[in-house]
Amino acid sequence: MKLFRNKILLLPAFVFLALPFYGFMTAIVQSLGNEEPLSHYWDLLDSDRFLASIAFSIRTAGIATILSIAIGLLLIRSFYKILVQLSPRLRVWIPMLFPHFVWGYMVILLLGESGIFSQIAVVSGWMESQADFPIWTRDRYGIGIIITYVWKEVPLVILLLLPVYSSIRPEYYALVDTLGGNGWNRFTTVELPHLLPVLVESFLIIFSFSLTAYEVPALIGTTFPEMISVLGYEWFYGSSWDDRPLAFASMVSISIFLLILTIIGYTFLNRTRLKAMRGGK
Amino acid sequence: MNQTTLEIKNMTKNYKSETVLNELSFQLQQGEILSIVGPSGSGKTTLLRVLAGLEEPTNGSIFMYGEEITKQKANKRDISLVFQQPLLFPHMTVMENIVYGAKISKKYKKEKTDALLTAIGMGKYQDHFPSEISGGQQQRTALARAMATEPEVILFDEPFSSLDPSLRQDLRYWVRNFLVKQKTTAIFVTHDMEEAMIMGDKIAVFTEGQFQQIGKAKTLQESPANLLVASFMGGNLILSEEEYISLQEITLSPPTDRKADRIYEATLLHVTYQHARPIAHLHIHSLDEKVSLPLQHEDELQENVTIYIPDSEVRRFHEEGR
After folding, report:
1. Chain A partners within 8 Å of B79 (Cβ)
2. Residue B262 sits in which domain range?
3. Domain edge (last residue) among B186, B221, B256
4. What backbone phi and psi angles, to 5 degrees, belong to B114?
5. Which residues of B touch A272 (CB under 8 A)?
6. Over the stretch B144-161, which tens digit does the pLDDT of each residue have?
7. In which band, very low, low, confident or very high, does the pLDDT at A281 lie, cut at 50, 70 and 90?
8. Are residues B205 and B289 in the same domain?
9. Under a CB-based contact definition with an 8 Å cutoff, are residues A162 and A198 in contact?
10. Which positions in chain B touch A177 (Cβ < 8 Å)?
């Protein structure tokens, strides 16, 4: 393969990839334990705490990802002509400059029961007391986590989709119009085929991150159900050493799940029709 | 007598202070093909976009079969546009591209799209994606897709400009025959006079936002309305704003059979060959005009030449021909 002819050039990349690979392999070994193989995985399936956590995590990360992509897509569709200019584009990307932890803290300050919004609601007379303000942080539905991720990831979606919209030739819209098409036809025929690869990749990136990242759910999530990353951390650093293999088993399971999801995503993108978009078959 | 398919009355299009289309009026009969020829940037594409409904005219009206369609949106008009580039949808096969045109305009019949596919000679490639076929095949597919919407009028915006010359030549005749066979009313925009003559029943010379003259190629060649038409047609030497002479009547030596009343000095710029004949490209100093004269003998060539013009062959522009 041409890529491997200059093996020396790939060495830094291999060294870099070797570290997470080593970590992953170690995690697999640790998750298997010394007893019956896969016993910790069976334990996971018997654990109500794990099953509740995984369901909550997939649901929360899924909603946050879909909302981020939908809102990002809507914003870029409506404003991409403005966003190609530097100044508006930089303003949209401001949330990307802050760490997730900071953004989560800001959501607590704004939307917590004693936060700024609840104070405004009481002062303006909308609510009698701050206790009437809905629980949006450390709530059992993960609303605070979802709001934090959506707020943080929408600019990322815009960043990823902007080059796609800039590359669509406007003549295609005129073509659909002259063939008798409407706005929906413009979107499905002209935009969607260009967007699909980026949407699939954006979904994989945002979903993988929000499913497994620790800081936001640790800061703004509740104790039950907790996100899988929080549960894994507790199992790893908990008082009982017996739980540590469960932490490895849960993280390995998530990695395999994400790997399968990625393979499905890229298999979809490798369909003949989408390859033809890129000029090949 | 043929019915009037498309009628344009006093159409004007302004962009800020610039007038791109200036009080245009013309008619197209059913099955007629009109070539519009003009230099780049003269507003030809704007004219097509206004006719297709992609842009609104500043003033004036458009009628189709007597019904006003000026305010009608592009997707409601029975007018298709074939663009400079084929603009096939890259994720659809040849057949899907054609069927898309028919389905989107709610005029899909399998027999019809099959017939179109056969007519453009793409049956063998129906399952190919645009990236797998040549530029000419792509443009033929784009034409079939536009035809599949069964438009009353089809507009062509320099559809061959991105093709190489030999392919362009073949496709010109193919499209012309196709349109004639389908009895389709069409407007064909180009900046190439030869292409305009091949494609159109009539030719409209379009510059400065106006039709300078509309007529058959022979009329435009023999009786140009003004110097813009004469210079665009080529084959003439413009002597003044009122006079011109056909290049055929100019000689590089004193004529033996008649009197040469006007004599001009010129410099030989270059020699090229066309149809196996040498062509001298000359600059006439006093007129500040460049002309290309076919030569009988290469030995006529010198750096400085004298050209002879008989007064009897000098013609005046026919403004009434507009």
Report:
1. 178
2. 244-317
3. B221
4. -60, -45
5. 129
6. 999 888 899 999 999 888
7. low
8. no
9. no
10. 52-54, 73-75
In angstroms, rounded to a whole number, what is the distance separating the alpha carbons of residues A194 and A49?
41
Say if residue B66 is in the same domain as residue B109. yes
Whose CA is closest to A278, among B130, B95, B140?
B130
Q: Tell whether the model's pLDDT for residue B321 goes beyond 70.
A: no
Tell me how close the Cα of B49 comes to any Cα of chain A, in angstroms. Answer: 9
Q: Which of B221, B256, B287 is the endpoint of a domain?
A: B221
Contacts of B139 in chain A (CB under 8 A): none
DSSP three-state, residue A204: helix
Per-residue pLDDT at B277: 84
In a domain, B236, yes or no: no
Q: Are B112 and B185 members of one domain?
A: yes
| Domain contains B231 | no
Q: Give the domain CATH number at B265.
A: 2.40.50.140
B133 reaches A (C-beta below 8 A): no
**Residue B32 above 80 pLDDT?**
yes
CB-based contact A179 B52, cutoff 8 Å: no
Q: Which domains does chain A have, with CATH numbers?
A: 47-277 (1.10.3720.10)
Nearest-Cα residue of chain B relative to residue A190: B89
Assign residue B93 the CATH number of its domain.
3.40.50.300
Number of domains in chain B: 2
Same domain as B185, residue B267: no
Q: Would you say the C-alpha torsion B195, B199, B201, B204 has a positive or negative sign?
A: negative
Q: pLDDT tens across B90-124, in order?
A: 999 999 999 998 998 888 889 889 988 888 888 89
User: Are B121 and B260 within one domain?
Assistant: no
**Chain B contact set for A277 (CB, 8 A):** 90-91
Both tokens assigned to B284: 């006439």
Cβ pair B129:A177 closer than 8 A:
no
Beta bridge partners of B211: B206
pLDDT tens track for B209-248:
889 999 998 888 888 888 888 888 888 888 888 888 888 8
Q: What is residue A280's predicted lDDT score, i.e. its pLDDT?
A: 63
Complete DSSP assignment for B195-225: HHHHH-SEEEEEETTEEEEEE-HHHHHHS-S
CB contact under 8 A, A280 and B131: yes
Tell me which residue in A174, A179, A279 faces B104 most closely, judged by beta carbons. A179
Say if B46 falls within a structural domain: yes
**Which residue is associated with the tokens 């009109």?**
B34
Q: Is the pLDDT confidence value at B322 over 60?
A: no
Residue B60: which pLDDT band, with cuts at 50, 70 and 90?
very high
Query: What contacts B281, CB < 8 A, 6 or more positions away?
Result: B268, B269, B270, B271, B272, B290, B291, B292
Q: A185: nearest CA in chain B?
A: B104
Give A170-210 pLDDT, tens digit per residue: 999 999 999 999 999 999 999 999 999 999 999 999 999 99
